[in-house]
Automatic annotation (TrEMBL):
Domain of life, per lineage: Bacteria
Domain Amidohydrolase: 56-248, 416-504
GO molecular function: hydrolase activity, acting on carbon-nitrogen (but not peptide) bonds
Organism: Nonomuraea thailandensis
InterPro entries: Amidohydro_3 (IPR013108), Metal-dep_hydrolase_composite (IPR011059), Metal_Hydrolase (IPR032466)
Protein name: N-acyl-D-aspartate/D-glutamate deacylase
Length: 532
């Protein structure tokens, strides 16, 4: 029983189906929070003793209460300071995400230490940690984009930058091996860098070299990097890309599980969608990308023979991955040379509007037309990547966490709905509607598992002494409502607390979002640094 002499709780949640994620005490009916910390988890009567005049009482009415969701794979750092509203993380909090890890896929706009220091001065609304992007590390050392064979001095310079990033609190290093400059890096370079990460207790997260044609080799490379460096390996947004490659799913799982059985710590993450995000360069064969975008656009595409090779590669991908169907590839926002703006349009629709037949050759020409306009925030789109069966197979793996792979651009349209509803989509579609996995298993993959993979000892479980990140949701109604054309908050997420502060509360109607921009005190989130 709690001791009422300790004083009233700040917040209590009553009449809930509390799924604690604590193996020693997995179920409860109520919980109490004081000073941003869970103080008691138990029955309604005992927690009711902690209600005082100032206690915020949340009557859950049988809804599920669980730890706040932990998103181990985001790109929320890339646009974090462009708008004060981005520090509110509204599209994350509305789906129950209370902790994010940024700096994924090798991408970063600044050093981890600088990023975290800026957030110390302006705290975010979620708990925020970051990885060190391999692309940033290369750029910081002045290494040319297309350089493959690095000198010992260049490798040591990268290791020094990484050591500083790890000392400043980065959780590890990420790579984007399908992107510039990651695709030019050799395995030995990555092992040398990952060794530094391992020495500091961090992990190696990788957007692998291939998610389709060379997926098996890419997985084996990730495993080798873990074996030779000693770093834990996180395979990012694991999928099997392209209809011609869907058969590889079981082989990928087999390789991972063989490595785990051999003592190599390999895990991963996944967003629950068949469609993935892209920019036009993702269609370009890697050998034409390595020297960088200026060389691609300014030199290669002006050489008729080289352009023909590049176009043939695009035609091959569209034909094998999508059966030549331009309806399966959507662009979010692009203005063509004639000033026509296309938003949320398929490649086939654009060609049809121009009076052209959307055959693979014409689709490839359209992608080449878009390339010069590609930027970090422009022309992005989505194309059909994987099968629903592959999504289910990966989702069933106990060592794969749910993620968004999302961006912090509140209510930007068109958009990939993963930024607005990935976690509720799992709960609504894959748990309730399809019965692909039990509710508690899904929640484990959103809470205690990713917290453990990050090394967070005080989150991901509802237990006395843990930080009070909490989500209360209706298991009967929870689900994604966003589409590619229209962002929207999910259904069924009724209460969200970050470090004990109620940030989403649907009792008063409306969207329930309680935070406002411009607060001099900042948000309730904490800046997270790698635990030592």
């Amino acid at each position: 029983m709690p001791d009422s002499r300790r004083g009233a709780a700040d917040v209590v949640v009553l009449d809930a189906s509390v799924l604690t994620m604590d193996p020693e005490s997995p179920h409860a009916a109520a919980l109490a929070i004081t000073g941003g910390t869970i103080t008691h988890v138990g029955g309604r009567d005992e927690v009711s003793e902690l209600i005082g005049p100032g206690t915020d009482v949340i009557e859950a009415g049988g809804r599920v209460a669980c730890p706040g969701f932990v998103d181990i794979h985001t790109h929320t750092d890339l646009d974090l300071f462009r708008d004060p509203a981005h520090l509110l993380f509204k599209n994350y909090l509305m789906q129950g995400i209370t902790t994010v890890l940024a700096g994924n896929c090798g991408m970063a706009e600044m050093a981890p230490g600088e990023l975290l220091a800026r957030l110390d001065a302006h705290p975010p609304a979620v708990n925020f940690g970051t990885l060190a992007g391999h692309g940033y590390v290369r750029d910081a050392c002045g290494i040319p984009a297309g350089l493959e064979e690095l000198s010992d001095a260049q490798i040591e310079a990268m290791r020094a930058v990484l050591a500083k990033a790890m000392a400043d609190g980065a959780f590890g290093m990420s790579t984007g091996l399908e992107y510039i400059p990651g695709l030019s890096s050799r395995t030995a370079e990555l092992i040398a860098c990952a060794t530094v990460v391992a020495e500091h207790g961090g992990f190696y997260a990788s957007h692998m070299r291939s998610e389709g044609d060379h997926l098996l080799a890419a997985v084996e490379e990730g495993i080798r990097i873990g074996r030779d460096s000693g770093a834990r390996v996180q395979l990012s947004h694991l999928k099997t890309d392209g209809a011609c490659n869907w058969w590889k799913t079981d082989a990928v799982i087999g390789a991972i599980e063989a490595a785990r059985a051999d003592g190599i710590d390999v895990a991963g993450d996944q967003y629950p969608y068949r469609f993935f995000g892209w920019n036009p360069s993702i269609f370009i064969p890697g050998e034409h990308l390595a020297a960088g975008r200026p060389a691609l656009v300014g030199t290669y595409l002006r050489d008729p023979a080289r352009r023909r090779l590049i176009k043939d590669g695009i035609v091959d991908r569209i034909t094998r991955y999508h059966g030549g169907d331009g309806e399966l590839v959507v662009i979010f926002d692009w203005t063509d040379g004639a000033g026509q703006r296309w938003q949320g349009a398929t490649l086939a629709a654009i060609l049809t509007a121009r009076g052209l037949t959307p055959a693979p050759d014409a689709l490839a020409e359209l992608i080449l037309e878009m390339l010069p306009d590609e930027r970090a925030d422009a022309v992005m789109g989505s194309d059909l990547s994987t099968s629903d069966e592959a999504v289910r197979r990966y989702l069933s793996l106990p060592y794969l966490a749910v993620c968004t792979d999302g961006f912090n651009q509140p209510w930007l349209a068109p958009c990939h709905p993963r930024s607005y509803g990935a976690f509720p989509k799992v709960l609504g579609e894959y748990v309730r509607d399809k019965g692909a996995l039990p509710l508690e298993t899904a929640l484990m993959k959103m809470t205690s598992l990713p917290a453990s993979l990050m090394g967070l000892a005080d989150r991901g479980v509802l237990r006395a002494g843990m930080r009070a990140d909490v989500v209360v949701f209706d298991a009967e109604t929870v689900g994604e409502r966003a589409t590619f054309g229209t962002p929207a908050a999910p259904a069924g997420i009724d209460f969200v607390l970050v470090n004990g502060m109620v940030v989403v509360d649907r009792r008063a109607g409306g969207d329930g979002f309680r935070l406002e921009g411009g607060s001099p005190r900042g948000g309730p989130g904490m800046v997270l640094r790698r635990p030592v």
